[in-house]
Amino acid sequence: MPHIVPRPCIDSLKAYVPGLSIAEIQEKYALPQVIKMASNENPLGASPLAQEAVRRHAGSLFRYPQGGNPRLCTALAQRHGVSPEQIVVGNGSDEIIDLLIRILAEAGQHSLVCFEPCFSIYPIQGKICGVEIRRHPLNEDFSFDFDALLALVDESTRLVFVTAPDNPSGYCPPRHAVARLAEELARRAPGCLLVVDEAYADFAEDESAVSLLTAGTLPENTAFLRTFSKSWGLAGLRLGYAVLPPRLAEYCWRARLPFSVNILAEEAALAALTDTAFRQATLETVIEGRTLLSEGLRDMGCTVWPSAANFLMFHLPHGRGTAQSCFEALLAAGIIIRPLKSYNLPEHLRVSVGSREENRAFLAAMQTFLASR
Ligand SMILES: *Cc1c(COP(=O)(O)O)cnc(C)c1O
After folding, report:
1. Domains annotated on the chain, with CATH
2. Does this model's pTM top 0.90?
3. Residue 17 has pLDDT above 90, yes or no
4. Residue 197 CA: which ligand 1 atom is closest?
5. N or C end of the chain, less CB within 10 A?
């Protein structure tokens, strides 16, 4: 198609590379069983009540979803003690990130601010929207310098993105620091939105200590993002949501594609929200597994960063192989983890907390890998 020419910002993009899938690895290494600890999915799978809801509603597949997903918005509003007018649901929180940028930032005029490295969707969607991306490096220990971030903000800045807890490090800023960032931003740049991505906040030992959203303090210039992909175990259905100022939520509904949250995602989420046993088991499994994995890796001499999320970032002991060789050795043993090359961290690795058996298998494979060096 010689006459089809994309916009220059698209021409320079590469397609998003997700963690490898189980089927790909099974085929490549002829393995009967593969463990995936690469994409921060729920180690217990999907809630049984959500699965049942999907089966029960299979007969509705020919219907369009209800416009505006009001039942789901009401349930989420109740969960967070806000009004349904403050909730927007999307096809993953990825869709809401894209939506917020498109609503607030004009191509060639406006800028967005985020850390480097950070969740890749913020800068990528910003770039697609033609928005200038301003980034400040994380501190050496992967903590956040909010003052330096603020220093990048000027009249052109429409959005500031912060991930709490952060991906891929697991670092979490205290909630009072995020509250202060919101205040400072409101003072210096009244037209700028702070987006606090709390995709992993419910895995913290004390959620209210890290989450400004659960603390009940909702600054007027701030949008909070949550997702059903991690602790709720519904990554494949694609469902995320935002808690935002009502005016902004209304703009989101104007700009969002009408049916981006499908019927099965909506029914599964409503059911998952009632499945307190599954949720409790998930949080316990993750918190217990996180301790086990980080102690196990440290015992082997690895450097492990403290994490409030359902994954750990780590570094091999010096002189004991490269991150790539470790990743490949684990693949051959049927375990998929995440090398962090794409985050510009070629020597760091990230492992998602698995089930008890998965965590044990991972530690055993690591032991074997390090013993061979
Ligand atoms: C996984 C993740 C999300 C969730 O994305 P979905 O589109 O809801 O699956 C959002 N933010 C961060 C930082 C993540 O790691």
Report:
1. 8-46+277-371 (3.90.1150.10), 48-275 (3.40.640.10)
2. yes
3. no
4. 11
5. N
